[in-house]
């Protein structure tokens, strides 16, 4: 899928007189179960070392970084993306475009290992995944660089808001929000694994077979009855477990896949909106246009003008 990038709300940059450093100036909010860091860089820099305590979820808010992590090629890092950094893992970071008028800004949530373990154990005990051999867990380095989902971005924004408040109960509120953040992170990683790499898991994961069927029959009538039968589940269980595992319903997933196909078709010079509507699996033009604007933020016609 190629959904619209879901940009987190950036925090207002610090005024110059409040900066302790022009490179990775650090503002810290320490709570019981995590530490929230906001890093700002106001000048170009190269190979800046950084190490955080505990596993950290980092998210770009402004500008661009180039990340160097052990054992993998360097990669560009933009707003709308997150990177999971392992416990005590050393990062080296380039800031090729940072300046006083255009600072970079990155969020890093360092999470205590006990908090992660407690959340994972709770999920596996009460809300098991579809396949017993793939229990809830944070994925490894191959799924560390993520495109944010709307759900992950929204939870991060709430975590920032509660961390910065003076509410007397903020540690309690923050604890609940952090648990949700961990769930959203694991759901996002599960989407990367099954939605994008489903072919590797066709014989070991029932939802990989469902995704494969959806992709091969995208323009046809895709009933939940048929999909639940493929997953060897009742309709109600399939709906519930799919949403629990990935953070969206099967119907929402089909809509996003069809919209991704519509975007691909709209980029073709001779395509028209009505034809794309049918070829992407939608059978009602006004419904297609409404869904496209809801998910992509602009109409199909406006999208076509921007891309052709």
From TrEMBL:
HTH araC/xylS-type domain segment(s): 208-306
SUPFAM superfamilies per UniProt: Homeodomain-like
Molecular functions (GO terms): DNA-binding transcription factor activity; sequence-specific DNA binding
SMART domains named in the record: HTH_ARAC
Stored InterPro entries: AraC_XylS_family_regulators (IPR050204), Homeodomain-like_sf (IPR009057), HTH_AraC (IPR018060), HTH_AraC-typ_CS (IPR018062), Tscrpt_reg_AraC-type_HTH (IPR020449), Tscrpt_reg_HTH_AraC_N (IPR009594)
Recorded superkingdom: Bacteria
Keywords attached to this entry: DNA-binding, Transcription, Transcription regulation
Keyword Nucleotidyltransferase: no
PANTHER family cross-referenced by the UniProt entry: ARAC SUBFAMILY (PTHR46796:SF6), HTH-TYPE TRANSCRIPTIONAL ACTIVATOR RHAS-RELATED (PTHR46796)
Name of the molecule in the record: AraC family transcriptional regulator
Originating species: Hymenobacter nivis
């Amino acid at each position: 899928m190629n959904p619209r990038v879901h940009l987190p709300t950036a925090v207002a940059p610090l005024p110059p007189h409040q900066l302790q450093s022009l490179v990775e100036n650090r503002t810290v909010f320490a709570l019981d179960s995590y530490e929230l860091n906001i890093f700002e860089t106001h000048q170009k820099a190269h190979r800046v070392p950084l190490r955080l305590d505990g596993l950290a979820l980092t998210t770009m808010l402004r500008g661009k970084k180039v990340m160097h992590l052990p054992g993998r090629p360097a990669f560009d890092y933009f707003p709308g993306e997150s990177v999971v950094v392992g416990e005590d893992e050393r990062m080296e970071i380039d800031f090729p475009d940072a300046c006083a008028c255009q600072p970079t800004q990155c969020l890093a949530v360092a999470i205590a290992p006990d908090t992660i373990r407690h959340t994972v154990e709770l999920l596996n005990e009460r809300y098991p995944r579809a396949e017993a051999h793939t229990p809830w867990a944070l994925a490894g380095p191959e799924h560390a660089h993520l495109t944010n989902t709307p759900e992950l971005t929204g939870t991060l924004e709430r975590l920032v808001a509660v961390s910065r408040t003076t509410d007397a109960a903020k540690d309690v509120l923050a604890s609940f929000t952090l648990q949700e953040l961990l769930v959203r992170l694991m759901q996002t990683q599960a989407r990367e694994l099954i939605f994008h790499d489903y072919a590797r898991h066709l014989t070991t994961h029932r939802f990989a077979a469902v995704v494969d069927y959806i992709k091969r029959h995208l323009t046809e009538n895709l009933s939940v009855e048929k999909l639940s039968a493929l997953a060897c589940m009742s309709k109600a269980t399939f709906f519930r477990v799919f949403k629990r595992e990935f953070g969206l319903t099967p119907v929402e997933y089909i809509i996003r896949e069809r919209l991704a196909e519509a975007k691909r078709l709209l980029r073709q010079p001779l395509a028209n909106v009505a034809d794309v509507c049918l070829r992407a699996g939608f059978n009602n033009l006004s419904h297609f246009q409404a869904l496209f604007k809801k998910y992509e933020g602009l109409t199909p016609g406006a999208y076509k003008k921007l891309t052709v």
